[in-house]
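Give me structure tokens for this 420-residue protein.
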Amino acid sequence: MNGENATREQLIQEISDLRQRLADLEKLESERKRSEKGGWGDEDHYRDLVENSRDLICTHDLEGKVLSINQAAIKLLGYDSRVFLGHNIRDFLQPKFRNEFDSYLAAIRKDGFAKGLLLVKTRTGEKRIWEYHNTLRTEGVVVPIVRGMAHDVTDLKRAEQALQRSEEAAQKLAKESEIIAEIGKIIGSTLKIEEVYERFAEEARKLIPFDRIMVALNNPEEGTAMVTYVSGVGIGGRKIGEVYPLRHSGNEEVMRTRAGLLVQPETGEELEARFSTLLPTFRSGLRSMLTLPLISANQVIGALHFRSKKIKAYDDRDLRLGERIADQIAGAIANAQLFTERKRAEGEREKLILTLQKALSEVKALSGLLPICSSCKKIRDDKGYWNQIEAYIRDHSEANFSHSICPECAQKLYPELFTQ
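Here you go.
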């Protein structure tokens, strides 16, 4: 049995014990009624039961003045019996119940009985809760009196409240776990994570309210972080695809500490020295900033950011929940990042292959027999056209021509230059 179950079992046992004491009180009431019917011989027996009872028994008049009170009540409240006798019960009640005491007396007069809860104050100032069941006696007495029987249910109520809180906490934890599991399911449903970010944000909002949510991935080599998803209040320089410096940022801090960061400044000056990159966030009207590390394969790959316009919007519970959410999505984000990088690398590879293929297709070699005119030296191509030799070689290789003239041709063409 774990600690939580053990605590619940203890609370249930305490409630059971206290209910047994209530049953004992009812038994005492039955004894009292029998004593009234049995005459004076049983009165002594009843008086003995009253004085030795662990429950609170008293009588008071129709104005609330105490006429008698047993030792259990005196001991529990910590007063001397003389303090009670002749004083009004109203004086021993907490203020909120004093105003209801007149309604209690009216009910006694009208119905002949009243039951409910009273919050009383002991001599030391401690507050105790009494569950009472009082009846009006008019027969056999000179003036009507109220017989009061009460049981201290303080521990019972506290146990019930503790059990209720425990059950509510368990239900809340189960609901949180259900939502976080759904977040993991959404994020892990595809490697194209940008397609499901909006659904993720809807689920995350059920746990942590926000006016802006953002995912930014780290690039330590370049000292930057890049926004990969954002929704909500717009901030300059923080749109999808934009980068900002890691230095003095929430990303840098959670990368260093590997723990969530809660920043809720009242002024911009509080941010400037330590987290200057958060100043645009503050100037956009966002006053509560929750940043959680995204850790995958023992590396802080980025951060999940929650932002709220409300002052002091987040507490340790939100920090704990945020870390659980970040843990749930970090692996999927890392896988999606690897998938994106792989697709980008494949695209670059395909582009390179196409470039090389194009380059190779443009590299040509001359081979075989070329039909060339023995007079003008033109070359006939595959289509039967005669081309200048320079043009043919240029089109079928990577060679180009620059024209000049050799000495022999120069002497032949310009003999006058050589006869001087």
